[in-house]
Amino acid sequence: MAEYHKRNRVLHCTDIVKTFSSGETEVKALQSVNLDVYQGELLMLVGPSGCGKTTFVSVITALLGFDSGRCIVLGYDLSTMSDQKKTAWRGREIGFVFQAFNLIPALSAAENTALPLTISGINKTTAISRAKEMLKAVGLESKKYVLPGNLSGGQQQRVAIARALVHRPKLVICDEPTSSLDHESGQMVMELLKKLTKEHGVTMIVVTHDNRIYRYADRIAHMEDGRIIKVEENR
Ligand SMILES: Nc1ncnc2c1ncn2[C@@H]1O[C@H](COP(=O)(O)OP(=O)(O)OP(=O)(O)O)[C@@H](O)[C@H]1O
């Protein structure tokens, strides 16, 4: 039995449709997406290029609107929220990890990690102290004063993970977190994401093409042509 809590639904999407139009052309990026995601699980979203993965994670984090369907995320019905509420909600409840770590070169690991807190108005001393705790959780306590350029790719991604989690979001979206890493660093990053999911009760949705990391998923949602065609339990 998986360790996540099937009763606590973090995401509930039904019949999500999203069409992009430019001039005469229309692209049905999401045709009718249905998906439930539960608290504390690591769900991987996989599928061929262009099948709609980025569009879907943009919709569920309220970065992109949708045409029809229902999308409840962490108890919020996204179709009824104002843009201002969406921005505040996203900053508070969601963390993002990207393929390109997007660290600021002139800031130390601790300062980079602290950014979401300082941006939200928390004073610098408190922010740095919480950032250091988070760096400890990702195994980088000794690198807290080091600049990103002096860290390996795997270490930079661990700083990016610390930054994504420092404000204690309930949902973390990881977009190809291992694809710019070598095999060993990729496995370490996935071990870490899995551990943080279980220890902090956070829910992770990992978009990936990297089948070497599928074994870290609790479930794998397969997407094709704007639909989720299959969700597998990973035993
Ligand atoms: N802003 C946009 N305007 C027009 N079409 C778009 C836009 N964004 C995405 N699309 C189209 O929507 C479809 C789904 O794209 P999406 O980026 O969600 O796929 P993906 O599965 O994330 O692909 P990849 O794995 O290559 O990142 C594609 O046909 C894409 O060309």
TrEMBL record:
Q: Which InterPro entries match?
A: AAA+_ATPase (IPR003593), ABC_transporter-like_ATP-bd (IPR003439), ABC_transporter-like_CS (IPR017871), ABC_transpr_LolD-like (IPR015854), MacB-like_ATP-bd (IPR017911), P-loop_NTPase (IPR027417)
SUPFAM superfamilies found in the cross-reference section:
P-loop containing nucleoside triphosphate hydrolases
UniProt domain ABC transporter: residue ranges: 11-235
Give the UniProt keywords, A-Z: ATP-binding, Nucleotide-binding, Transport
Gene Ontology cellular component list: membrane protein complex; plasma membrane
Q: Which GO terms describe its molecular function?
A: ATP binding; ATP hydrolysis activity; transmembrane transporter activity
Tree of life domain: Bacteria
- Record flagged with keyword Lipoprotein: no
- Family matches, as Pfam families: ABC_tran
Kindly indicate whether the keyword Metal-binding belongs to this entry: no
Family classification: Belongs to the ABC transporter superfamily. Macrolide exporter (TC 3.A.1.122) family.
The protein's name: ABC transporter ATP-binding protein
- Tell me what organism the protein belongs to: Sulfurovum indicum
